[in-house]
Structures are given as structure tokens and as C-alpha cells.
Amino acid sequence: MPGQFTPRARKVRVLATLGPASSSPEMIRRLWLAGADAFRINMSHGAQADKATLIGHIRALEREVGRPMTILVDLQGPKLRVGQFAEGRTELTVGQDFALDRAQGAGDRDHVHLPHPELFAAARPGTRLLLDDGKLVLRVTEAEPDRIDTRVEVGGTLSNNKGVNVPDVVVPMAALTPKDHSDLAFALDQGVDWIALSFVQRPEDVAEAKRLIGGRAGLLAKIEKPAAIHRLTEIVEIADAVMVARGDLGVELPPETVPPLQKQIVEISRRYGRPVVVATQMLESMIKAPVPTRAEVSDVATAVYDGADAIMLSAESAAGDYPEESVAMMDRIARTVEADPMFGARVHFTETRPDLTTADAVAEAATAMAPTVSARAIVCFTASGSTARRIARTRPPVPTLVLTPEARTAGRMGLVWGAHGVLTKDVGSFEEMVAKSKRMALRHGLAEAGDRIIVTAGVPFGIPGATNVIHVVRLTGNELKGYDE
């Protein structure tokens, strides 16, 4: 029945990518029941019409269960690729010279067409070019407006249209391609909750995307380029959320540098109160196997201990043989970690100091009071979701019930640590606030008769950004009698 779903006990969120293995209404429902809190739709593959069908399936499930569903659309971003070869491929050997040029025609062992003039402008002697996800490495020896001469440092087979990564320079390209502009307009028209921006190199990339979005969705910046690391704090300040995109980071940077960078990105995001997602290869072996490796389990657990807001499945749920099992495994790992008696101490290893605002003071107080009064939940009234994010930043020991009159705010809560969004009418008085808090906590299974809850809101009511009230109430169990909402 709508409204009867009990919020999940765990606080970290599971973001599941949908794809060929998980495109049916039945499988999407099974993923949600297995533990998926949010769904990622990758615009790198498939047509917009197919994505509209997927979104329709998710919204139908939302109506069925009476719970807001969170949808993230991931824009493709620029894809740098070499051209084609006369024989479809060539073999490059260590030490040989190889050129990338703007000449039309098929490539051979000595050169290949590169259809990206921006790379000719960015390349300098000494610049590395990584081909085919870093399997081949070229070092630029000379760069001209229409030709880049290189020497092969790591050889192998190079075939048609393989990708090019340039980790050593900022490529003068916009993060949004014409395809991305089209996909962004489509996603906003579909009413999705989050937009993930790829190929972020500068805070200006994020600012431009936010300008185009105009508040109609949250903007998640994917940190996957070395250039973004150099301006990480500026990017995090502007973005609404952040993703540790470990796949591309691991291609463009030495793999041993990715774990400390992951911790750095999570820490900075938490300090600024931005939801942070850890992604890529978390349960990679479950694409083909029904169980993960022990190393993968440890990897997922580490992200949970670090205090990530969400952990993401990619091909495991989108194209693997065990999509439902992958989500269930992610759910079990997260719940087991959060049940560790040391989890609270570990997740608070990162210090998140409050801003000097009344709203932050209220959020900090709610988290501090929860264990003192043995509260079962924090209930926050919010229009924009700002209060919910402030509370989540403190990583409280109890779940947060987010009551909001804004559908877009309720929908975005699927990426926020410990938050359970509920779309409901706003309140107009202190008495109504207390009564509704009690009813909703009971109705959504977050508290029972005799339990205490902590309520935060803003007075005067209905004024966004004015959180200034904190109140502790005890439930009697009679709050639902004779009331139909």
C-alpha cells in the first residue's frame, strides 16, 4: 500500500545504474526492494526515447509504493577518440615514432587521424597521451597546429575509435557537448532529480551547467580529471553533490594515488555539506559471478566507513548477470558496517565544523541531542532541502525524516546520508508542526509509542532558509487515530 514502506535502516545510499539487464519494470522493482535508493541513467548509451521509458517505469513504481524515487541522469561529456585504420587496427611498439594528425583518411602504423582540434592546441612536448583506457602510452615529442608527433612508451594493439586521455594538461573544451545540451534539456523535461556532469576540469564548468539547469535539478560534479583535483575545493563549493569517479581517475593517474584521493574528495565534500558518491568497480566481479571478491567487499566497506553518502553500482546492475544480487550485496555490506560498534567513531573521524549560522547550530544540536534523549529519529521541515543536508553533514546516529512540500526536494533525498524524503503539505503553526511530526514518524515506521523524536523547523513557517527551532517530543501512539492524511 502507498505510504506503508518503512524507510531503510541503513544510512548510506545505494545508487544502481540501469541498463539492458535492468530495464524492465519488474527488475527495477526488484532492485528497489533489494536496496536501491536511487537509479542512475547513463546517457552514453541508447536513445532518449529508451531513457524516457526507463524514467516512466521508475515513476510508476514511485506511485505504486507512495515513496519518492531518486533519478540521476549522467551526461556523456566529451569523448576524445582517434580515427580509423585502413586495416581496423595497428600494432605500436615501444620506442617507435607515431603521429596523430588532422589529415583525413585511414591510419596506419605511422599515424592516425585525430578529430579533435582542441588537443592540438593543448599538447606540449612531454605531454602524455593515454590510449584505450591507458593500455597504450604515447609521449609528445613535438606539437604543431595540425600534427602531434609522439614516441611510444607503452605499446600494444590500437584499433579504430579508441579513446584518448590527456592527464597532463587542461584541454580547452567545454564540459557540455551538443549531445549533452540535448540530453540535459530532455532530462529536465522528464523531471529527473539529479544531473551528473562529466569531464569537469574547472569550477566554471560546473557554474555553466548550473546556470543551464536553473534549479530544476541538483548538479553532481564527477571528479574524474586530474585538472579537477587541482581546483577541487572550488568545484565542491559550487556543485550540489560530488562523485568520486574512480574509473577515469585510475586511467589518468597512477592507480595507487586513487585511494588517498578518494578519501580527500569524500572529506572535502563532507566538510562543505555536499552529498558525495563513491563509484566505479565496487563489485566488478559480480558482473559475471554471483558473489564478489573479498577485496571488493573491503573496498565497499571502506567507502562506508569514510562516510560517503552513496555507493554506486555501474555495469554490475546495468549489464551484469546478477543485478539484483549486486544490489542486495551492497545493501548487506553497508548494513553490516553501520552495525559495527566502532562505526560511529570512524565516520566522525572527518571533522565537519558548522558554519556560523543558526541553521547549522540547530543541525549540530539535533545530532548531539539524539543519543542524550534516546531519540529514534530527527524530523526536519524544509522547502529547499538545505536543513536536511546540514543535518546529514553531521552524520547523526538516527535517521532523518525530511518533510517537504516540494517534490523536487523530496526526490533529491535519495543521495543524502540517512535522509528519508516525504512529500507533504507545509505546516502553519507550532502545534501543527508537532502533530505532523508525530504522525509521520509513526506512519513511516521511524518511531513507536513511547519513543522520542527531535523536530527542527523554521519560524515563521513557510519562509525558506529560516531553520531556528529545535523541539523534543514523545509519541503516545494515539496520533494516527481518527486522522487520514
From TrEMBL:
Residues 10-327 form the Pyruvate kinase barrel domain. One of its GO terms (molecular function) is ATP binding. SUPFAM superfamilies: Phosphoenolpyruvate/pyruvate domain (SSF51621), PK beta-barrel domain-like (SSF50800), PK C-terminal domain-like (SSF52935). Residues 360-473 form the Pyruvate kinase C-terminal domain. Keywords: ATP-binding, Glycolysis, Kinase, Magnesium, Metal-binding, Nucleotide-binding, Pyruvate, Transferase. Its EC number is 2.7.1.40. Pathway: Carbohydrate degradation; glycolysis; pyruvate from D-glyceraldehyde 3-phosphate: step 5/5. It catalyses: pyruvate + ATP = phosphoenolpyruvate + ADP + H(+). Signal peptide: none annotated. Belongs to the pyruvate kinase family. This is Pyruvate kinase. The lineage of its organism: Bacteria, Pseudomonadati, Pseudomonadota, Alphaproteobacteria, Sphingomonadales.
